[in-house]
Give the backbone structure.
Amino acid sequence: MSKHFNDLLEKVSQCSKKKVAVAVAQDDAVLEAVKAAKERGIADAILVGDENKIREIAAGLQMDLSDYEVIHVEDVQEAALKAVSLVHDGKADMYMKGLIDTKGFLKSVLDKEVGLRTGKPLSHVCVFEIKGIDHLLFLSDVAFIPYPTLEDKVHIINNTVEIVNACGIQNPKVAPLAAVEVVNPKMPATVEAAELTKMCEEGQIEGCIVDGPLSLDLAIDPQAAKHKGATGRRIQGDADILLFPDIHAGNLVYKCLVHTAEVKNGNILTGTKAPVILTSRSDDFETKVNSIALGAVVAEELGKNK
Amino acid sequence: MSKHFNDLLEKVSQCSKKKVAVAVAQDDAVLEAVKAAKERGIADAILVGDENKIREIAAGLQMDLSDYEVIHVEDVQEAALKAVSLVHDGKADMYMKGLIDTKGFLKSVLDKEVGLRTGKPLSHVCVFEIKGIDHLLFLSDVAFIPYPTLEDKVHIINNTVEIVNACGIQNPKVAPLAAVEVVNPKMPATVEAAELTKMCEEGQIEGCIVDGPLSLDLAIDPQAAKHKGATGRRIQGDADILLFPDIHAGNLVYKCLVHTAEVKNGNILTGTKAPVILTSRSDDFETKVNSIALGAVVAEELGKNK
């Protein structure tokens, strides 16, 4: 059971060595993370893109390319299709975004011939280790689905539970968050939170415990839960998964954690056949490396279930 | 100009001594904060409520009631009306919630005879000192207006600018927040953020600089703003006011700051004739004291403008 990012790295070291296919790999920050992931034994990489540019950046990073497979494809969209097809064909275990815009990258992820579609909707999961909280927190969705419907939220929960399980945590507690912890008919987020709770009780959502609506303090702070007398609730400051009402709430909390708290984090796109690493240019170096480690752990689990 | 809570306390020490009228004062946590506020020279208090219960709690807190005016009113709603009328009549400078539910308390605030109505809509402002950020941040609305319309947002900005000014900060920078920093017609929060920016440029919103939509990193982190190349924007990680798209986003960020970052904070209700202190039972002791200090600073400023 992973309680910290170090536990995840330990878990990676017990997996078979994974390989990440990088789409349009001529990107400084991405190559730097890929290099560190290899050096730390997290994953090897296949670099697809403009070979000259890749070699130029690698030289600057003192990165020995003889350790990597490099596939020259000059055109950006073609490079992405080549990279994703490597994952599709089982030659790599996960897929990572390089110097390509998110739209073009997602187009390759969803490509009907060589992409990683499963028929399930995609969603985004962030894993956080936060100073003062004694276990990992999984946040969704902070980057991908703008205004999830009730049905989307069920998919988000299922997708996220899969990632949580891969990290060795069974039957996670899911907190559908809102400004308040009581149902208010004038606040749709609270109504949907109660509906999700009911659906879980009735077995329509499985493999987790859903309890909402919850305010953030009741979800993550056992002291606050005690102080507010939330003793009857299934979640009392010990949530594993934080489900956000919409992308604004999710993204603002995500950035609040990254920019004001002491954290380690990694992010992954899920609902796909293999893990997809879609870090943004605002993510720092360690976040990118952590995301590759997270991808490796998830790839191991998906491999087992094949 | 206040950059830290200590600057606000310094400012309080330069004001004439203020007095807070407490509605239904028989509340442990509130009396403890009122006692500390008096000991620290922040404000005196008039305690309205059930005198026996007030004396009992005060004894437990080793609080000498001979330093306070105590007015016995047993009925909760009548006690609130008595307390608010003291502020209405100028016998106290600010109004604070004790052991009364928020609904009943607000009813007294809005009472047509003895309340503190101005005709302007009320809104809630939180002031934060956050480790790693070199100036105070003012958040609104995280507790009062659930789904602000564009018009509500203009009122929220005006109400908040008044509080910021009282803290000695002129022409604050206002960041209407969203998940992204570009206008997306499918995301109403980004469209309204752009409209507020335009309204400010055209002089319909005065006394501040509005620049949105902004993601939280661009609003509060100058390094992130630089990294993302936001050099053309009026806000580059140096926002004073964070305007939230709705109460869920605001409240979740508020609780995220309180429960995961190193902060000092105080909260106030504004849009009223005098400052209203509406702390919640989840606010800790220092937050309650800080809120009284904030109220004193705002009362001084409102007094000047009379």
